[in-house]
Amino acid sequence: MHEILRNKKVIFFDVGYTLDYPATGDWMFMLGFREIAGERLKRISPDRIREARAKGMDYLERNHRIHDEQEETERFCRYYRILSEELDLQLTEDEITASAKDRVCNMDNYVLYPDARRVLQELSQTHTLGIISDTWPSIEHQLQTLHIREYFSFATYSFELGVFKPDPEMYLDALRKCGHDASETVFIDDSPKNLQGAAELGITPILIAANPASDVETDHLKIHSLSELL
Q: Are residues 185 and 203 in contact, defined by beta-carbon separation less than 8 angstroms?
């Protein structure tokens, strides 16, 4: 076991780019949307796509506190409608709905890192495991489909609180649920900003750089795969 974990009681995990990654390499342009709009998107400049995505994300972030997958589907229908309008994709309502349902319900969109299940199984025998994730209600279906939900004792999800990391409430909620002092916990995430938010509350941060975009300079301990925790 990694030395940093020896005196800890709880390990918090992020999900995306920590435990799994999107099959398409993009959390929003997933399998269904790419099948429907992929050819149309090729004709549009990256700058226009970037601006449209920003408008869509602004809507999602302002309407993030929700309860179930039905509401999640409604939010993503609006997101893909915004993209269609901004980029003149001329998506039909059926195509918008299909893109949203794929984003919420198609678990082929998510790929588990090869070592994730084995590492979680081993660590769950020595530590209490929890989740701190910016995510949506379908996360539960995702974790169950990937056969890793059983290893976690509790979870803090942004859609339940209506805030995102590094808002302190995300970490405080997780600490309340685990019942341990921050000094007894570790948080593994692919974002230095999110790790800094945890560190400011006394949680020990570990940067995971399984995604090359996360392989940046940091004062925190950095690993490139979950296997390095063992």
A: yes
